[in-house]
Amino acid sequence: MVKLLKWLDENILEILVGFLLIFIPLYPKFPLIDLPQTWVYIRLEDFLVALTVGIWLLQLVRKKISINVSLALPILVYWIIGGISLVYAVFVLNTNSPIFSPYLGVFHYLRRIEYMVLFLVTLSTVRNLKVVERYLKIIGVTLLLVCIYGFGQKFLGFPAFLTMNEEFAKGIPVYLSPINRISSTFAGHYDLACWLVLMIALFSSVLFGLKKKGWRIGLFFLLLFSLVNLIFTASRISFSVYILTISLVLVLIRQKKFIIPVVLLSLFLMNLIQGGVGERFLKTFRIQKVVYDVETQKPLGVLENPEEAGKLLSPQEEVAREDLPVGSGFINLPLKKETTPEATSVAVIKKSVEGALKTATVSSEIATISGEFLIKRAIVYDISFTTRIQGTWKRAVDAFRRNPLLGSGYSYLGLASDSSYFRALGETGILGLSGFLFVIISYGLWLMKGFIKIKDEFSHYLVGGIIGGLLGLVLNALFIDVFEASKVAFSFWTVLGMALGVISLNFKKKENVSEEVKIILKSKFFLVTILLVLGIIFFVPTLNNYFIGDDFTWLRWAADGKIEEIPNYFVSSSGFFYRPLAKIYFLLIYPIFGLKPQGYHLVDIGLHLLSMVGIFSLSLDLLKSKMLAFLISFLFLIHPVNNESVLWISSTSHLMAATFYILGLNSYILWRKEVRKWRVIFLFLTIVSFILALLSHELAITFPLILIIYDVIFYRFHLLTYFPFLLIEGIYFWLRNGIAKALWFSGDYSYSLWHFPFNFLGNIFGYLGLLSMGERFIFIYELIRNFFRANQILATGGIILLFLGFWQILKRRRFKFKKIEIFAIFWFIVLLLPFLGLGNISERYTYEAQFGFYLLLVWMIDAAYKRGGKFLKIIFSLILIGLIIFTFKEIRKSRKDWHEAGEISNKVLLSLASNYKEFPSNSSLYFVNVPLRIGRAWVFPVGLNDGIWFIYKNKDIKVFQVSDKEAKEILNQASKENIYIFIYKNDGLRRLE
């Protein structure tokens, strides 16, 4: 008896972990204890996990087992952040929220701990490889039983126990028809599919590590069995992820020859099996006829039956986000110019216009707009994508906006957000999502390190499979709440603990894991990933900002353009700037996105993120410090001065040129350093980038000068090197000014030789202030500029004194600049050079130049920390902290202004479309008080006539923006035939009569 108790004491945790590995996936989700306000229950598995954790803690206290604190650190950090978020949500943010429940928030938080703690428990049980082998056998048996039950559901009428709604969650058995998606012993088909992806990845790798032929054959058929079950789940996301995952696993274990056969077999089975994922793939994106309103060009719904054309379209009732109809989302298909779309007249009641014009809403649009509707082909995406884009993801973003740093609290998003990342963002904010990604990336990099170092063949294949499984869940989590699904989460953290245990066995004890964590945190991959994630978090909420001002001008060009006209873009500017690549971009993308701003914003955000990666690479090359490069890139990413470039669709040409400019310089630096065969390729990429930048925007004319400056400072000057770039620039100027007759600097964009010195110095002062103090500095800048403009003699004397004083400082102190400082100053001035002579400043002109400002600032801060005294360190630290705090404060205001600008633009145009079916030919529309700007965000400086053109497609309608005085004069005219005067007042459009 004593021996039995001793053996049990030694092995109790392994027994419990093994039991959980088989019990949790197989035991259906029968409820045990009901929780109010939700259909989530405490179940038997929760008590078993609590028992296991309790014994584990007891063994820790007794020092029978130990825990690797370094490996536990990422999870502990995430738990601490989650706890802070929960406390803030309970006691500060959600004190009066009808959505948030404090006790449910606590429950959801404890659930996260419950899932992850099994990682630590399992990790402490892996004393040798025999333990891992036993765990694998248990998991293999579990996988077989899950698949058998799945087949039973499909063909033998085995019941399913689902948690998809409140009634099902009570443990009521549901009998599926043969065409239903199977869930086996899981709570839903998505959960089963994600779990199968994890298992297939794991055992696909282990298969190649087995030595016995019989075991390999048996495991092969088990994998085939699992694949068929995966297809029966009809999960398109998980099947796509499976293809990527199995390919990665085969690459990792150096079995690439099997990739094509495995993928072909998988696709063959997908198409062979009826009622599976193949049929759902065909419904993901399908071409159907969609009803479009002629006036607004907005899609209204799918025309399921052609006989419905010409009938009354009744208004849709407001529907829940989860119940959005098929066809709520559309991607326009290009129409051939000679094809005339079908038209149908829809009989509806005309709304009278009294006082303020009525604006159509999404739910009442069909009822309030009368007239002709077009029926044309479009790509319709189904309910799954519609629910995510218009429902659950949007709700998560709204929760994030309430408290960007810590989120709105656990449970705020309910039971589904259709993405673990959006859930983390909405519930725990930037800190919570960063903490969660820190956990995943840390363990992922640790797995990769172990996979490379491990010599034991069995361990090598095991870790390779778990790497694939981790990738599978990470990708699934983009569209599914994977890490919150209990059966999947329990299994994943247990298997991950098993893998890290294997790695720990193979590593020498003297290896310091905390040092490995530091290496991970400082790795380029981790830092760039964090920057990209932060960028997505910052800019995704802006995707729905509507078009403003010049946007409609660009879109009208695209709507009127033809593919065959593209060659003409290079030889004719039509009296405007020479930006042929930007015009081609809008021409090609307009047929896809039409008047939906999300697609255009997505491209701009992507360009900004790509530029940020290029800035990181440049900073790393110049400063040789990943952390300093991260800081510079972070400032570039978030500074509100970039909102005009990133959030204004009309600035896409500027963004394109900047992106190619930065990528071109990176390629040039690689060409300078590279001595192998890739050198020619890098030079080719530099030249191509330069050409594309020139064709996007005239700012790229400074590129050869930057190359020369870089070489003079860091390399050596060689005239022949710059000949191709100077030749290209010469051809560009010949095309631009000699052939295309493009608009050069004039009007607001004019140069004046007399004013050039004043503008040069004044604009440098303005841009430095703009980067240091944000857009509020514009007011100070304009006051100073207006004063010196009125006192030019005083301004001239000031310039002379400034020059003499600067010269004396350099002469007396023999001040010597470092190479980095010289390059930073030249970068800032050269990149602004095309705009420093103008009579105004604009935020978008600082987009590339700001890199020089950040480079110099961060370099000085770093130098202060390395060589300066305590006082200097404190000063620069306060400057940096103040800049970051000020930047975050400015971001919210600036984002709000740009969003409000789009809302006003949308409101003005929808008001007209909702109340006027058409205007008589040669009508004149006068608009009073339509805002030019909200803060620094443009509304309608220009482009109002182009926006109205999209409603009526009538070139004879004349549009004017006038003052109150001019409007009164027009009203007093004797004849006012076909004259319409509208005033924007009290956030609405009214007609003056």
Structural write-up:
With 993 residues, the protein is an alpha+beta fold. Among the domains are: 2-279 and 398-522, no CATH class; 280-390, no CATH class; 917-992, no CATH class. 62% of the residues lie in helices and 6% in strands. It contains 35 helices and 13 strands. Strands 3, 4, 5, 6 and 7 form a five-stranded antiparallel β-sheet that branches. It has a four-stranded mixed β-sheet with strand order 11-8-12-13. It has a two-stranded antiparallel sheet with strand order 1-2. A hairpin with a 2-residue loop joins strand 12 (979-985) and strand 13 (988-992). The longest helix is centred in the last third of the chain and has 46 residues, at 870-915. It is globular.
Give a topology summary.
Blueprint: H1 2-26, E1 33-34, E2 41-42, H2 44-61, H3 69-93, H4 102-125, H5 129-155, H6 189-209, H7 213-232, H8 236-252, H9 259-272, H10 277-284, E3 285-293, E4 299-302, E5 329-332, E6 342-346, H11 365-368, E7 371-381, H12 383-402, H13 420-453, H14 457-476, H15 486-506, H16 513-522, H17 524-539, H18 550-560, H19 566-569, H20 580-593, H21 597-623, H22 626-638, H23 643-647, H24 652-673, H25 679-696, H26 703-714, H27 723-739, H28 756-773, H29 777-790, H30 792-813, H31 819-836, H32 850-867, H33 870-915, E8 924-928, E9 933-934, E10 937-938, H34 944-952, E11 958-962, H35 964-971, E12 979-985, E13 988-992
Parallel strand pairs: 8-11, 8-12
Antiparallel strand pairs: 1-2, 3-4, 3-7, 5-7, 6-7, 9-10, 12-13
